[in-house]
Amino acid sequence: MQAINKDVKEALHLIDQPFTASYNYSPYGTCFVYGTENQQGINDVIKYDGKDVITVASSGDQYLGAVYYGAKTVDLYDINKLTRYISFLKIAAIKSLSFKDFQSFFMPMTENHRVKKTFWNLKTLKRLLPSLPSDVGYFWENIMYEFNKKGYGNFVYPNSYCHNPEMIQNGMPFYLEESEYYKLQTILRHRDYPEFKNCDVFDLAKAFPNKYDIVYLSNILETIVASEVQSYPFASFSTEDRIESELLEKAENTIYKVGRENGTIMLSYRANSTISDSTDLFYNCVLFEANEIPRKYKDNLSHDDKPSTDIVLTYKLPSKRMNIRP
Known about the structure:
- The protein is of the alpha/beta class.
- It has 13 helices and seven strands.
- The protein has a seven-stranded mixed sheet with strand order 3-2-1-4-5-7-6, sandwiched between helices.
């Protein structure tokens, strides 16, 4: 009970803060309501079907994409403890609600870009409580009550342009088509809630004793690189490459140990980019494969001059370990 009360306390602290538009890599940080990755395109690259997957929890969309496309087992990790509550709430909502009711409860914005009054409302939450783990239900009962009084603060940002229905549904068939939603609902009703462990990405091998066919890192490494580059007042491209090289060495000694031989590491997801424009070390290592897929979301709803592709960067683990540093 002490742990759940701390989680509630930290979440309430975020609600009391103004939104900063900064998603820090920390145990208690701002959460995503939806992901910014095209799961349909990702599946075309890494092929979830029949695989054992470990993926970041984040908004829960990575988990939903994996099970929708046929993953055998899917375990979750995240350094942000609050992502467990987001992910489990979304799973419970899909398990329990009709397509229309899910859209009302979990899609934040109207077509006119206003936050819905029905978004994360207490009345619908009460319908979900019987299907939620007790600690998750306790968390949301406390948090949603505060949303009604104070707003969302720095906990989530439902006003984000990427929460426009078109952006949410792009590359996510189960958010777009009613029949695909019920297909996912059926899958989830036959699965227990996933295992979740609160850990740093470089501690995966310590936290998870199992081996996986797919190790999904999302954009975590790029987030770490961006954060470290900002700490250098006169950073150059060589500074970025050096930081990326150090992270790859660290990943080889930690993260890759979770993958099975011949497994796939999904190293990075870069939005609104092309391979030719990606000149940094990550995307120019001969051992990695970069694939362009249709982009998940536009840069801006009213003005858009970004590339029409996102990039999925993968590394195929060898049958025998080898040094993958460039």
